[in-house]
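SpaA isopeptide-forming pilin-related protein, Enterococcus faecium. Tokens?
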Amino acid sequence: GEVLQGAVFELQNREGETLQTGLTTGEDGKLAIEGLAPGAYQLVETQAPTGYELDATPIEFEIERSQTAVVELTKENRLTPGGVVLTKIDDQSGEVLQGAV
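Tokens:
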């Protein structure tokens, strides 16, 4: 799939306490958080990009003591299904036509 700009996340500890808010993916679809102390964390999507469904399922990850490697996580968003509402109107009176097929 394509990368998505504008997804907003919140960084939490494993207990669900908020540590950082407003973490937003850039044009490349990525966001970076630096300087995390060793411990268990989770990212929770708080706002999906326009046209996509919000998935607030936490993405859990852990930073180990003396870890130097970057942790890479991936999250996929589903398109918001479209819809349509059709109203039949009499072209003379402008009244809604009940039961029109």
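The radius of gyration is 22 Å.
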